[in-house]
Amino acid sequence: MSTAPTGSVHGPVPPLGVHVVDGGVQVAVLASHATGVDLCLVDPAPAPGSSPDVRWTERRIPLVEHSYGVWHGFVPGVTEGQRYGFRTHGPWDPRAGQRHNPAKLLVDPYARGIVGDLGHGPETYGHVTTRGDDGSVSGDPYGPADDRDSLEHVPHSVVVAPRQGHPPVRRPGVARRATVIYEAHVRGLTQNLETVPEHLRGTYAGLAHPETIRHLTDLGVTTLELLPVHAFTTEPHLVDKGLTNYWGYNTLGFFAPHPGYATRQAQDAGPGAVLDEVRGMVHLLHEAGIEVILDVVYNHTCEGGVPGQHLSWRGLDSSVYYLHEHGAPGALVDVTGCGNSLDFRHPRVVQMTLDSLRYWAQEVGVDGFRFDLAVTLGRDSTGFTANHPFLVALQTDPVLNGLKLVAEPWDVGMGGWQTGHFPAPMAEWNDRFRNATRSFWLSDPAQAAHGRPGHGIRDLATRLAGSADLFGHSDPPLVRGPVASINYVTAHDGFTMADLVAYEHKHNLANGENGRDGSNDNRSWNHGIEGPVPFDSVGMEIAPLRRRSVRNLMGMLLLSAGTPMITAGDEMGRTQRGNNNAYCQDNDLSYVRWDLSPWRKDLLDTTRYLLALRREHPALHVDEFFLGRPQEHDAPSQPDLAWYGAGGEPVTHDEWHDPAVRIVQMLRRGRITGKEDAHDPHVLLVVNGTLDGAEVTLAGQGNSSRDWALVWDSAWENPSELGAHVAVDEPDPEDVTAGETVALEPLSMQVYVAHCSEGPTAPTQV
């Protein structure tokens, strides 16, 4: 048993974690309420005569230096690859947030490597528990401490030295206006990609394989956003059901890459090799011009609620790390829905998060981060504030403020919906874009088919134009621009795009919760039949309608102002068979399918074409909000945006507010300087949100003889219907003059590009 500290209590505080230095390691760990901390060096048990239940031995080294709550010291002879953990001594008073239990080996919150599986027996809990007949573990979390040792039942931290010999980080530096995000899972993207060697599929190395990169670059993706790659565990309730945590939003270590995504060769070589594989993946993606953003989960940890496991933070300094009731450190506040929330009111939590972010940016070379449930990270004692010290640090830190930072702008606590309220340079997931797109193209038509009203064009138009209502209220005004809006129709949680048009109800029984999990607000439309269509006349009628609806969703996503995010596999019609919460489905239900039926190949071609259209025409990827009037740097009398109705006249005030009006034309002017610029033409988007075909008089300026070239119609199964010889930047179909009438199929959209540079008339304000 360690005794009270004997070293200085006012000495300099070394960097937290275990760091390789000359002759050994420098060790530092935060445990401000402990009376003693042991560094435990873990080694394999000697084989001869050892019990099969005893795999590990340990040497306990008391840390005697103690400075401002940090226990530290130099330990000679320790090198890379050494397994270790910590044990704390001190009061066991759960109601006061004091959970020191030296029987439990704790993971270093700053560990650069983590290995080993997590058991789920009573040994992994700090309080006394028993295992029931169903395998579940229960006990009184405020009861006595459990004295069973956890060494054989928990993962171990591993010493990892700074990497040497890697090329310097050279980021692609994709402009924000040109950014196209592709949200993917490390395993799910390549697990079924047969052109990748089998031993690389589902790994970090598989992501960087030339075949994977070829798909991303051919598609037009600039930025790969990876679901969590921090080391994580599976929750006990999933283990009891024979399931695993697939998504990874259950972090055990914020500095260690998840070893399960590395190749077997790297896993066998140890955490240093796993880190090298991650760094190599980032380097190869950078060489291909692709940025890497990590989805990071700093809002909670894998230790769960008060009755949860005793793995790291809980045993080191629970009342510092976890958000708790005022005056009741043992009562956790859960604003994440995951049992606990990290307390960003405390400087040490902010420090840990910033240290982790800098590590991944500098050591690994990633280009940015998407912050899961980011509102939790901006909560002080009164609630969310955009001036939170953590958010201020992101704006001012020289390592972080130049990266691409994305907030999921909500959590489940009071005042948790904060879309549009994060500070620059952060972008935000735009749930209003998702909802408006799904409603206009799916749930509204489903209602209309039964004679019930839906929504008009106003909200859809606002989302097409970049959501200035949400992201334009900055200081100075409009400084964030439409690039602050991460536009998405689907993400990892929820229906896939193909399932949005095939299911009106979630089908989540495989998750083991009797269908209780997953959102019920899906705004989807099955077009008349739930699930796969039969091979009969009814199915032959419904299938094309579903395919067109997918193209409408994809067109809306890729042609709107803002930063589009595609969910991996949506471009190829991936289905989860109606499961809208596949977080525990580490199987083919979640993996991307690469066997392309004709309609999936058509959808892939369409997505590639739309991204090329977006890339080639600056009017489709603006970085400033439209003003509806001439902009200062452009030619006079040429508004940058105008809205027209089906008759070619400006939309009236009444039409903006009429739910029955579901046809609109959006005229975006290209960036010009008073003379014709053939490389930056005007673009006209024509939307028909009715269940009937429509005759639309194309908009234009006064008596001009503007010629419009039709470059895409969502009624087309494949963009080759435009003509196989037509390039995106050189459209050559039959031109249409402004004022002429064109036909649109029911529930469809068309895109026209102008051949001359006159601007639109002044718009009616949305």
UniProtKB/TrEMBL annotation:
SMART domains: Aamy
Residue numbers spanned by region Disordered: 510-530
Signal peptide residues on this chain, from the entry's feature table: none
Gene3D superfamilies: Glycosidases, Golgi alpha-mannosidase II, Immunoglobulins
Record keywords, A-Z: Glycosidase, Hydrolase
Entry's Gene Ontology BP terms: glycogen catabolic process
All copies of domain Glycosyl hydrolase family 13 catalytic, residue ranges: 179-614
GO molecular function, one term: amylo-alpha-1,6-glucosidase activity
Family: Belongs to the glycosyl hydrolase 13 family.
Protein name, UniProt field: Glycogen debranching protein GlgX
Organism (species): Sanguibacter suaedae
High-level lineage: Bacteria, Bacillati, Actinomycetota, Actinomycetes, Micrococcales
